[in-house]
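In this section we walk through a basic example: taking a raw amino acid sequence and producing a predicted 3D structure, encoded as discrete structure tokens. The instruction is simple. Fold the sequence below.
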Amino acid sequence: MEQETEKLFHLLEKGTSAIMVVREAEAQLKRAGFEELNFHQTWGLTENGAYYMKHHDTTLFAFTIGEKVNFRDSFRIGAAHTDFPCLRIKPNPDVSTAGYAQVNVEIYGGAILNTWLDRPLSISGRVAVQSEDVMHPDIKYISIERPLLAIPNLAIHMNRDINKGVELNKQTDMLPILGLLKEEVNEEKMLMHFLAEELQVEINQILDFELWVYCLEKPKYLG
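The resulting token sequence is shown next.
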């Protein structure tokens, strides 16, 4: 049980977005001897084979074939989703309020909003970067393992009734703070400036992105 729990902890730490869940699951399957299949190639399936296939980096199918296969045989399917409730970064991500740089996000899935407050948050996903082939941009995968963002509660002297319960507005109260605006950084491109530095490219080379905000806290044993 302890070994299985450690495997779960490792997946939780590495699966910081749907894309990273698939990448970590793929790594586990490869270590277990599974062979990758491609949609554009003929599959040469064999008895006792173990295979997997990816779709758009966010979906993964894996299956094994028994020693003897009969068309009347039944089969078993286990399914789970790679995504999870979180904050998803919008296409126009940069927002500034009272000297603070914030990130424009939408609530993805059935997130419990107040559990995201006062925690160290970071960014995970993929970024499309201009390449020499206009039809095939470079895809950069990122999972930044350091605290970048926070959604702070108001201090109690600014909201004396906070312990009576507060309804959070998804559009205004859930925008993470990235940092203080600096004069040398264009306030309209604070996050884009950070991504460009992280990927070591120019801002105008970033074509698109699919990024999630995730909680940086690691899983722990309790009790």
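Looking at the output, two observations stand out. The radius of gyration is 21 Å. The helical segments are 2-14, 18-31, 190-199. In the next section we compare this with other chains.
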